[in-house]
């Protein structure tokens, strides 16, 4: 039996893990949210690991409010940096492996070729900076780690772009959506399968990996696909980022190169639109 601690247990990705893990008898999951385990409290983290024989920790807990982070930098750092450090230290002490979920926001989005794991990082805002600092802390503390950078996560759970578009599409006849920010949507269920695959393989190919679905889209393309698949009458119009000023600057290009995770871990990756269809059919 493999015991897996999942932090951020009520969030979107943890909910996807629950769905995918249903029926996996050789895996025992412990899901905790901040009310059960506050990862920003070192003593609490250390105590929680005692006597549980945890083999893997999947850290889905994060401060992800990109714009709010600009005015709440200390809180973002406590969760994304200190929390990551305390989990890594507990994993090291109790001989567990850590899977850290990170983000495309560690890059500034100013190049035009897909980002590889070893390319220069240069986050534009507090959210990306704290997630990057969390990566560095983990790598310095614990050899037995996997950092999975992902992008544009969506599913039927939690708050995400797809669910926002579906809601707005019922409320309005037209929508303006940004067309000049480009990346790749990631279906949470697909990412959850990858995480469970890594756990089951129990590989020692530690390090940083990129995972999103295959293909490239703008936020406008993503929205258009949602409404096309849903056969919605809501019309979507492309607008530039300048039409929607935000406290945090967004990367214009967030496409990540996934060759490493495919080659080293044998992961097969579905095309983003195919996964979107599956999600909308099962929502």
Estimated radius of gyration? 19 Å
Count of runs of 4 or more consecutive helical residues: 9
Q: Give the strand line-up of the largest sheet.
A: 2-1-3-4-5-10
The shape, in one word, is: globular
- Following the backbone from N to C, one meets helices and strands in this order, namely EHEHEHEHEEHEEEHEEHEHH
Q: Helical residue percent?
A: 25-40%
Tell me the number of strands.
12
Uncertain regions spanning at least 5 consecutive residues: none
Strand content range: 15-25%
Please characterize this protein's 3D structure.
This protein is α/β, with parallel strands linked by helices. It has a domain at 2-155 and 186-213 and 255-269: 3-Layer(aba) Sandwich (Rossmann fold). Helices cover 39% and strands 18% of the residues. The protein is built from 9 helices and 12 strands. The strands form 4 sheets. A 6-stranded parallel beta sheet has the order 2-1-3-4-5-10, with helices on both faces. It has a two-stranded parallel sheet with strand order 6-9. A two-stranded parallel sheet has the order 7-12. It is globular and about 55 Å long. The model has no long low-confidence stretch (mean pLDDT 95).
